[in-house]
Amino acid sequence: MQTTPPSATAAGKRYNKLERAKEMDTAKFKKMLLDERDRLELEHRIQTENLAEPEAELANYDSHPADTASNTYERTKEYAIDGNIEELIQRIDDALRKIEDGSYGICDRCKTKIKLDRLRAIPYATLCIDCQESLERY
Ligand SMILES: [Zn+2]
After folding, report:
1. Is the dihedral of CA 26, 29, 33, 39 positive or negative?
2. How far does the centroid of ligand 1 lie from the alpha carbon of residue 134, in Å?
């Protein structure tokens, strides 16, 4: 039995469509963030495995101080990259949490909306372009 007037159904459909469009946007960013997180975790794992390998062989090179020095340099460099990956994963987790609590895309500093173009380029951005630039100046 149909009791709903056709006009009300049409209005309801239009409303649902708008709501869905809004949610779809967040879902898209969530997917981007999760993809990026997967990629970083894989990279992180590869780097960790690469670091573990030379560790075991390092003892064999004790008689070559020059090699050891350059190894140490390489390792330090890799640790620095490693740190950045963990920081990025942390930022992605923060962004995912913000999607859940509805504060995603809001600048941490001035509380205005971050431009969509910026979020598309850096989905885990927590600052609008103005705040980011003013921070980088110092
Ligand atoms: Zn801002």
Report:
1. positive
2. 9
